[in-house]
Amino acid sequence: MDSQNNKQTGKNKNFIQAFGHAYDGIKWVFIHERNFKFDMACAVITMGLGFILRIRLEQFMWLLTAIILVLVGEILNTVVERIMDFMSDHHYDERVKVIKDVAAGGVVLTAIFAIVVGLFVFVPKIIELLN
Ligand SMILES: Nc1ncnc2c1ncn2[C@@H]1O[C@H](COP(=O)(O)OP(=O)(O)OP(=O)(O)O)[C@@H](O)[C@H]1O
Predict the structure, then answer these.
(1) pTM attached to this predicted model
(2) What is the pLDDT of residues 95-113, one digit of tens each?
(3) How many distinct structural domains can be found in the chain?
(4) In CATH, what number is assigned to the domain containing residue 58?
(5) Which of 87, 89, 100 to mutate to test the pocket of ligand 1 (most atoms within 8 A of CB)?
(6) Which residue from 60, 72, 42 is spatially nearest to 120, judged by alpha carbons?
(7) Residue 17 maps to a domain
(8) Are 40 and 30 in contact (CB under 8 A)?
(9) Which sites bind ATP (predicted)?
């Protein structure tokens, strides 16, 4: 579902058109960002494991929250990177370094949160299964 009008610079006409552009954006990140692909793979594996191990609904909600946080973090980090690359034209600039590093730091925090949630959900379940 690529945007029907690639030359559009104004507002979307309706919700369907807005959704189409948003879909294009997520597809772009998926195709071009290796980390996003990795995060999606982890999300699918984690949710699958959750089904297999029959975790509770509230535990699923925690996993889903962590997954969404990481994916949105990755998308916002990509936005920052693209704006900085556009503004700096790929020339080294200490200010660009700080901005990109800070954005990357945000992603790392969401990833740490996701790992902690994963440990809280799966470690007790695995211990329970082993006993
Ligand atoms: N124009 C620049 N000026 C200064 N430092 C830069 C510049 N471009 C990149 N860097 C440095 O290189 C790092 C990686 O750059 P960038 O975020 O573009 O690559 P990436 O591999 O897509 O990162 P990520 O793994 O976070 O997606 C930045 O965090 C920053 O430290």
Answers:
(1) 0.90
(2) 999 999 999 999 999 999 9
(3) 1
(4) 1.10.287.3610
(5) 100
(6) 60
(7) no
(8) yes
(9) 33, 81, 100-101
